Amino acid sequence: MTPQELENLALLRRARDLIDRDYAKPLDVPTMAAKALMSPAHFSRQFRAAYGETPYNHLMTRRIERAMALLRGGASVTDACMAVGCTSLGSFSSRFAEIVGMTASEYRRQEHYAVEAMPACVAKTQTRPSRRPADAAASSRIEEVRANTAA
C-alpha cells in the first residue's frame, strides 16, 4: 500500500470509530465524511472500498448489534429501537429482520442462555450481525491486505 492509501485508511478509521462510538446519535454521511476530512461522495466510495459496505450500512449494522444486546437483556422492541438512535420503529423492524433474519420480537422471545454464559468479548463477536455473504468479504481492501500478509 502506498503512503497515501495508508493515510486514507487512517482517516476512514476515524469515521468508523465515530460510528461505533456515537451510533445512538443522529449521524449522517456528511457528518461522517467531515470526520474523515473528505467530501461525502468521496468518503462513501472510499469507505465502501476499504470496508466492503457503505457508511450507512455500517451504522445500521452497529445499531442492530446494540439492539440485539438490549433485546437479550429484556428491553422492549420500541425501547431498543429508540436507545440505538433509530427514530422509526417500522424502519428499524424491517432493517432488523433483513440483517438478523428474524423479527426483533422473535429475537427477543428466544432463549439466550449460551450468549449469557460467554464472556462479553466472545459474545460480542459471536452475535455480531453481518449482511455480507462470505464471498463478499474479499471485496474490501482491508481483507485483501489481510489475505496477502497471511500468505
Overall morphology: globular
The rounded distance between the terminal residues' Cα atoms is 16 Å
Unreliably modeled segments: 134-138
Radius of gyration: 17 Å
Task: Provide a count of the helices.
Answer: 10
| Beta-strand fraction estimate | under 5%
Mean of all residue-level pLDDT scores:
86
Explain this structure to me?
It contains 10 helices and no strands. Helix 1 packs across helix 2, helix 2 crosses helix 3 and helix 4 crosses helix 5. The protein has 2 domains: 52 residues; 69 residues. The protein has 151 residues and is an all-alpha fold.
What is this entry, summarized?
The protein has 151 residues and is an all-alpha fold.
